[in-house]
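Training component of the fellowship. As part of building independent skills, the fellow (R.M.) carried out the full modelling exercise for a liganded target. The chosen ligand was glutamine. The inputs are recorded below so that the supervisory panel can assess the work.
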Amino acid sequence: MSDLIFQSIASATKALKNKEISATELTAASLARIDATEDALGAFLSVYPEDALKRAAELDAQGFDPSKPLWGIPISVKDALATKNMTTSAASKIIENFIPPYSAYVVEQLEAAGAIILGKNNMDEFAMGSTCENSAYKSTQNPWNLKCVPGGSSGGSAAAVAACQSFASLGSDTGGSIRQPASLCGLVGLKPTYGRVSRYGLLAYASSLDQVGPFARTVEDCALMLSVIAGHDERDSTSSPRANEIFHDASNWKKDLKGVTLGLPKEFFENQSMNPEVAKVCQNTIDEAQKLGATIKSVSMPHLPYSIAAYYIIASAEASSNLARYDGVRYGHRSAQPKNLEELYNSSRTEGFGEEVQRRILLGTYVLSAGYYDAYYRKAAQVRRLIREDYENALKECDALIAPVSPIVAWNKGSVTDPLQMYQMDIFTLSLNLAGLPGLAIPVGMAENMPVGMQILGSAFEESKILSIGQCITEHLGTNGQYAKL
Ligand code: GLN
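Fellow's submitted model of the complex:
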């Protein structure tokens, strides 16, 4: 097995270009790594070795193409993204074995860039969860400690990259599902600005919050993935019309943080649930950023504590509407021999959806119902605006904000069973989606022998700026490119 699989996309591309390795050999090495680790890890719902090798052979026959930035690079994709000829279930029984007739925009973009898609990563059912334990099929283990969760909902996408089964992956972030698993698995993960990346072909959870984004082991690789998947797509009405940018041009990146003001939202740091060891690693990161020349400024975001309530009302409301299409009639699971139409809907959805998804549908339907809409949904929408204003005010005074991602490191599987306690874990990530802004999770150190991440939060469409800050900090801390020695 080639050692290249433990390195960055940038290094592998150099080797492919110089013909030190072929796309077929690199793909075979990634597949061998999957074979060796997947029983322990459970990061994939499906792997397509033959298709991947066939595609690699085709690329080899054509020869290295420098215009394709992911030429010959093995990548994996969250099961919430439609892939032509590959099953796409969003880890739900309701569309078990579904093979979409088309691929998501981001998957098309990966393929056009020369990537080799190995298979589909495990996740919480319909992206609802924070641990990957809500998958209808299997749980995924954290490659740094197999007893622990990898985070969620894009836990499989994170575990695969942290264990070097793939070079990078795609996930989706509705309330933290890229940043939180990236943080718990010691990776770089980016939630782009709402509208930066097309949602065409992403199985919808909460459409006003969902964004697709990359996981990678280095900031540069993460930026490269963003360059590939971003851009206008007329099939998503919320896709931004702005022209695509190149995010991975390292020559634009700063070597230090002189002249950069980083805001510390005090409500994030005063949070009572913060583990003291994690807090210490975060404080050390802030001290190091200051040594790199950054000006640190305390800012206040007074509505942050309301983000959990507002998020779970809005996300559940949208989910209840989006998931209404799985009715047992048009496609997906249909209950056997229902007595009438009512029972067809009822039993198909009861059998097809897991407990957490049903909880969200019930909650969402309730907050949207005529008698409660004003008390819950409308109020949550108002709180959402206040949270967005908090971000705007804080970012007026700063280049970016820096904050923890998770109050604790990856926890033991099965140890959090109360849904409300689970929702509390999302306190640091949810507000960014309510505001529609970009956030980059970066690895910043270890606590209790597990990785700790922090997030750099920026103004709309300022991904380049947060990537540059993230690069500077991770290079300085020596955390860029780390992986789990599984
Ligand atoms: N944990 C949050 C939820 O369960 C966020 C999930 C996500 O970003 N998809 O809704």
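The panel noted the following from the submitted structure. The chain has a mean pLDDT of 97. The domain at 1-486 is CATH 3.90.1300.10 (Amidase signature (AS) enzymes).
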